[in-house]
Write a structure and sequence with these properties.
One of its GO terms (molecular function) is sequence-specific DNA binding. InterPro entries: HTH_AraC, PchR_regulatory_protein. By secondary structure, the chain is an alpha+beta fold. The protein has two domains: 203 residues, Jelly Rolls, CATH 2.60.120.10; 118 residues, Homeodomain-like (Arc Repressor Mutant, subunit A), CATH 1.10.10. The chain contains twelve helices and twelve strands. Helix 4 packs antiparallel against helix 5 and helix 7 crosses helix 8. The longest helix has 21 residues. The chain is globular and about 55 Å long.
């Protein structure tokens, strides 16, 4: 088993040292390309603004790896988001290298650099983890002290919760980008700041517990149905509200609070993202095929919707993939 040891700071040295341990190729001091015998993929470290940075991890491991983050005095909070195919377990470690909690699995966690942690990415699956590092004084100044959910954060103790729906959409949009794309720096920075803003807004202006815990779960259930049925037509507000066991009015209100959008618009946006994936997958010879498989009533309507969302004709993206395949 390969063991990687590191600690977080806002300096790039920790990233460079961790890259050397795994035998990765470091590009421009920010992209770490893993060796093919260990993993297929890379990681990306980026300073965002003063006191805030982010690290992105996107890889499929071929060998067992354990990543031990040692405690440090940098006084940073770590916002940990895991959108892997299967959430990977984390384990907190104290200064005596003793486990102080059982392994837990959560799509979203907040850690502190005063406690170390062990992260074991699973083999043969896509591991996609985003971590935002923020100075303690900045975060404490942002969030409301009245929010009981964050009392543990102020004591530098683990806090975890379900992944915010808005942040899940943002991170999924990041998953569609390549770290080697021109302008990825700007996109990564923008997404990280939006995610941080959502986190701060959520815990500075917390909604009632019964809405966040009960109705949010119902909204998520209906939302999962939509995401699993993007090849079909929009299921309708009546169907979704019944699925969530809410009135139509209450369902639309809760959905809008959660996603800052209507269910219909959300469904169509996700459908457009799926269409782009299909276009770039190289499995179709025409945009008409994709419009049919996605159940658009007319090919022209699909083209119009795609142009409105991405600002270009879908044929352009199909050509790009075909050109790459023919090289």
């Amino acid at each position: 088993m390969l063991e990687i040891k590191h600690h977080y700071s806002h300096k790039t040295e920790w990233f460079s040292d961790a890259s050397k341990q795994i035998g990765a190729t470091l590009l421009n001091s920010k992209i770490s390309v893993f060796p093919q015998n260990i993993a297929q993929g890379s990681s990306y470290y980026l300073p965002i603004i003063d006191g805030i940075s982010a690290v992105l991890f996107d890889a499929k491991f071929k060998k067992d790896v354990v990543i031990n983050r040692h405690e440090s005095d940098d006084d940073l909070y770590i916002l940990h988001f895991d959108l892997s195919n299967t959430i990977n377990p984390l384990n907190l470690i104290n200064s005596k290298k003793e486990s102080i909690n059982s392994k837990f699995k959560s799509g979203f966690s907040v850690l502190h650099t005063s406690l170390g942690s062990t992260f074991r990415p699973k083999k043969n699956q896509r591991v996609y983890v985003l971590r935002i590092l923020i100075e303690q004084k900045k975060l404490i100044n942002y969030i409301s002290e009245k929010n009981n959910s964050l009392k543990n954060i102020e004591k530098k103790i683990l806090f975890y919760n379900t992944l915010n729906a808005n942040n899940k959409v943002l991170i999924n949009s990041l998953k569609e980008k390549s770290m080697f794309d021109v302008g990825f720096d700007l996109y990564f920075k923008g997404i990280s700041l939006k995610i941080l803003a959502n986190f701060i807004d959520t815990y500075s202006h917390p909604v009632k517990d019964e809405i966040r815990k009960i109705e949010q779960e119902a909204i998520q259930h209906a939302n999962d149905y939509m995401l699993n049925n993007l090849y079909e037509n929009f299921p309708g507000i009546l169907f979704l509200s019944r699925l969530a066991k809410m009135s139509k009015t209450r369902y639309k209100t809760c959905f809008n609070k959660t996603y800052k959008d209507s269910p219909y618009n959300f469904f169509n946006k996700q459908k457009m993202i799926l269409s782009k994936q299909l276009l770039s997958g190289g499995n179709f010879s025409s945009t008409n095929e994709i419009s049919k498989i996605l159940n658009f009533s007319k090919h022209s309507y699909f083209i119009s919707k795609y142009k409105n969302y991405f600002g270009r004709d879908p044929l352009i993206d199909l050509k790009r993939k075909n050109i790459i395949n023919n090289l």
